[in-house]
Give the backbone structure.
Amino acid sequence: MNNKIKIVLVIIIFAGGWILGSNNNTAPVITSSMGGASYSGGYQPEAQAAVQAEGAVALRTEQGQIHLVKNGDSIQAAVEAAQPGDTIQVMPGIYSETVYIDKDDIHLLGVIQEGKRATMDGLGKLNDAILYSGNNVVIENFRITKYKGNGIMGQAGNNFEIRNNVIVDTGIYGIFPQLGTNGLVEHNVVSGIEDAAIYIGMSDNIHVSYNEVFDSVAGIEIENSRHAIVEHNNAHNNTGGILAFVTPGLPIKTTEDVIIRNNFVLNNNTPNFGAPGSIVSGIPAGTGILVMAADDVIIEGNIISGNKTAGIIVNDHSFATTITMDVESDPNSDRTMILDNVMLNNGYDTIAEVKAVALTELHTGLVDIVHVGSSEGSCIVNRHRYRAVGIGNYGDCDFTNTDSIDNYLVAGGADRRVIHPSERGEIAYLGVCTGCHSYTGRLIGPSVQVIQAMYAGNPEALVEYINAPVKKRDNFPPMPAQNYLDAETQMAVATYMLALEK
Amino acid sequence: MMAGANRANALRTRFLFWLVLLLSPYSSASGFDLNDQCPPSFALSSDNQCQLRNLYQLYDSLQGQGLGGLKTALPHHRDGFSPQQIDLGRLLFFDPVLSGNKDLSCANCHNPAKGFSDGMARSVGASGQLHPRSAPTLWNSAFLKSLLWDARADSLEQQALGPLFSELEMANTPEQLMANLNQVDAYPELFTQAFPNSEDAMVIANITTALTAFQSSLISLNSPYDRYAHGDSKALNPEQLEGLNVFRSFVARCSQCHTPPLFTNQQVAVIGTPEPEGMPRDIGAQATFGAERLRGGFKVPTLRNIALTAPYMHSGRFATLREATEFYTKGRGHAVPEGEELLLHWHISEPNLTPSELDRLVDFMGALSDESFMPEIPQQVPSGLLH
């Protein structure tokens, strides 16, 4: 743009602003957020479980064994020795290993002594510090540094608590639970992360609170997830502070029902150092809160200050040029709800795209809120307070707070699938046994009829056999032990097999 | 002594052969009768439907999508076909009468002995045409919501129409197919058995239903990995276990798209593998969705039984699993030719995996093999064309 055109534009803008401003003599309508209606939407727990959850992992009624890990020992060896219900305590020291928890109900606790922590050091060589896939896993009090991948990563574990960890410079994500239901991430200090310090991916019923996240590309990211509350966090000096969005091309397609409240979102102006091609590499430095293609996001009670591009950016997928196309993914941010927030000095050095949008509304200078793209059902409270562009179609919210909602955690934990023992027997017999056994003739093992003749009326003996098979017939291969099935399933399958009639 | 043992074996084999022949249900006039029992892993319901049973049904998954970690339910699957439909599908699948020149059956490119693939980089059609793409495995296709490399079929039924009538594959026409089948004595009766409620049982729609019924009975869920997932901590050897941890680490990121328990997230991904020498870029899913951002995009394939289905990638550019794995650590876009614009998937990164990590990944993928529910391969098919 040459200077002459710029000057002309500026004159038009000033004139326009003066004309529009001059018509505006009425006192603004001030809505008090004290009292007033509370949000009535959001996650509704089932009627019988209408009590608010205290945490994500139910308190243990009896304590299992405690496994003590001392400096020089292997944490993984303790995990392997542990049974569900056990606790592993890791004494201060340096541990360079990848720990994976593929069992349920394990509490992995660092012991902090006079400020000294159990430190997991990836030495810049190891991939991830802690991986878990089990349910009811608790991870606390570690210091984690210099891993290439993630600090703490969950895959499909439900009911998890990750708290009070210090994670410094661990590569891609600091804390990354994925594909899990019902989790609490709190009191962690995470910094120096190339993607998101705390990344909630494809998960449901999540609470992220009291964390400090800084010097990372993204502070806290809620991606393709539902029923999440992000509150009382301090997200400062990242490229972007707090993000709620939909990444297209992932198998879980929505982000819905996210409350971002009472956080500090300060000075998130760090130049973007995300990996080329990563989704966050497209976030402009200076982004306070970003909502992209997420629905039903409430932004309330945050102090959002000093973010140079804008305090709050709401946009759709067309704004992002580096992401893939997904016909199953709704590109718009619908029902964004902006309640009272304290917003200071945002958008003081914004990007060309935001300036362009602002110009269409003859807006110049600071930008607290910018909305780009179409949106249905969005609303705001006390809109006159903010330097905002693109919110012309926002209505006035019919509520002023979210006080009625403590958290979206599932009281008592995510439900486990309930399978009747008879069904369990059929599932195991057909799913596993029929590879080698048929009712009549021989396949790889003897027929079910032969087995019935040997164990009639005695499923206990059959259970004993499948737990530790011994070779009985010269011309048959040995049977692999089925001791990985739990006791209930073993008895169910033995009973089922002995009752089979064809 | 050896000769004696061999002779005894030969005699026993011959005896078994006659025994099988006597006991087998080849009792109708045409010599073929359809099985009235479900394949292994299926329960027969009171209304004559085969319902899949597997240990993953003991678990749940987020949003019911069948994606996650070890103890996670599988994605939605196809089942509910009758034993007769599955068995008719099996006979059709192996019968070359389905191709235009009666020379090529489904099993030529989806050979059970080769992981239901064909061991070739790119498949060869009925009269020798070289296909631009590699034949995918059919194991566990019951769980797929879209089919074909470019995701252009929404069902197995729709998919079956592709190869049947493609010039590059079986090169048949609907008219010719029906004429071929009508020349085989056994088929009208077999179709009536499989579709007793159809007025006119031998129609294209029932052919594709039967093929779907058979293909959705190809279940492979009892690999060493599966035993580990269900709780047998010793089911994987140390190398495979190390490989699992590389596989699911966020450095290699394999599990982000090849997500357990099916080892695919069923999405389209642009990863930029090289085409064979001289072959132009296959635009893949760009054509399906009319979207330039999906240029060169293909459906993420399952890795179950992957060790059985070399060569790899949509056009078979990599001869071994090791080479296919190494592709991911050679640099984002390293094989994309100059001037080619591809919007590469965000998980195609620079993981800098060590040679030993690549070996461990290959070890782990080897633990995804299971053929315990291999269907019975017919010794003869109704057309008599099996050779």
